[in-house]
Design a protein that fits this description.
By secondary structure, this protein is α/β, with parallel strands linked by helices. It has 1 helix and 3 strands; from the N terminus they run E-H-E-E. Helices cover 23% and strands 24% of the residues. Helix 1 links the parallel strand 1 and strand 2. This is Glycosyl transferase.
Length: 66
């Protein structure tokens, strides 16, 4: 199964160390363990891509000006 995980909250660096960041990473890991191919769309990437998530395709979203 192919899954698009979207994190549009600019306050969550998905590869950071905040609780929300860890949550996003763990959800992606759980989806991968079930055999899903995950593509991540996020406004804030944060730190380095963890080695065990290296096969996740990452797209950085741009915030639109209001």
């Amino acid at each position: 199964m192919r899954i698009a995980y979207i994190c549009a909250d600019p306050g969550i660096p998905v590869f950071g160390q905040k609780g929300c960041s860890i949550h996003v990473q763990e959800v992606i890991r759980a989806l991968q363990k079930q055999g899903s191919q995950v593509t991540l769309f996020a406004t804030q990437i944060g730190g380095e891509l963890p080695a065990d998530l290296a096969n996740v395709v990452v797209h950085q979203l741009q915030l639109s000006p209001n």
